[in-house]
């Protein structure tokens, strides 16, 4: 029995290759998702969360589940996609699985002047897209003091300029979750960083005035709603009417007030429809409606109820 247990232990160590978990339990990241080039101009967010462990390439890896939620301006639709990326840590180096192999995600023992290559499209890139360590620092978040590496990214081509990048231990990169170079059109996918939190209580966010919380999206469509026509019809109606927008109404709010300024109805749109039919018990009279997004009125008008 002891020999069997010893053999099992040796087999597990061999399979794992002495790999260890990198992501903390409950680790969750949010990044802004933005890509402006036709035919894929999109805006939204990219969420990553550790959902467990799994064996990949003989290594015991973190299973990082991605939810990519964006609005495609070319197709005029919301898109949600899912995928998985796998990471593990060996000594001071973190690796991530991409394009059927492991790449260095971070070298926590790196000093000024050190470099490492990040993942690339092996069909179109030579092995020359890399990070260079410019300086070192630290970031204090709650009770955690986390080392920081200030980097520059160097690309296979000169299509994009050299980019300044910040890597924080545990939290990751400030520009994208998993760096990747596609050398036909060189870029690092998505970004910037929005939020991180995990089960240990570590929490860190870099939110702008236009992005008040981690999975915020309405700020993306609100500027365009200002320039488009939102309509409510018919008028007069019998308490049933339709509100239509050229863009999805997701997370915007409809407010209806009477002639005395009292709010008689409000609704926050929780789906990605651009058209909603609503029935509410209103007395005969004149009413005013407004659509509010990101704390701004983006459309307004009036209608009559005549039963």
Q: What's the Cα radius of gyration?
A: 25 Å
Order of helices and strands: HEEEEEEEEEEEEEEEHEEEEEEE
Largest sheet: 8 strands, antiparallel
Task: Indicate the low-confidence ranges by residue numbers.
Answer: 1-17, 185-189
Shape: elongated
Share in helix:
under 10%
Q: How many individual helices?
A: 2
Q: In terms of structural class, how would the helical and strand content be classed? A: mainly beta
Q: Tell me the total number of β-strands.
A: 22
How many structural domains?
Answer: 2
Strand order of the largest sheet: 6-5-4-3-2-1-14-15
First CA to last CA: what distance?
84 Å
Please give the oligomerization state of what you see: single chain
Instruction: Classify the beta-strand content into a percent band.
Output: over 45%
Mean pLDDT: 80
Description:
It is a single chain. The chain is mainly β. The chain has two domains: 14-216; 219-305, Immunoglobulins (Immunoglobulin-like, Sandwich), CATH 2.60.40.10. 7% of the residues lie in helices and 50% in strands. An eight-stranded antiparallel beta sheet has the order 6-5-4-3-2-1-14-15, with no helix packed on it. β18 and β19 (263-268) form a beta hairpin.
Task: Give a concise summary.
The protein has helices at residues 2-16, 218-225, and strands at 28-35, 42-56, 59-72, 77-90, 93-98, 101-107, 115-117, 119-120, 130-141, 144-154, 163-168, 172-173, 180-181, 193-197, 203-205, 231-233, 240-244, 253-257, 263-268, 275-279, 285-293, 296-305.
Keywords for this entry:
disordered N terminus, elongated, 5-stranded antiparallel β-sheet, Immunoglobulin-like, 8-stranded antiparallel β-sheet, 307 residues
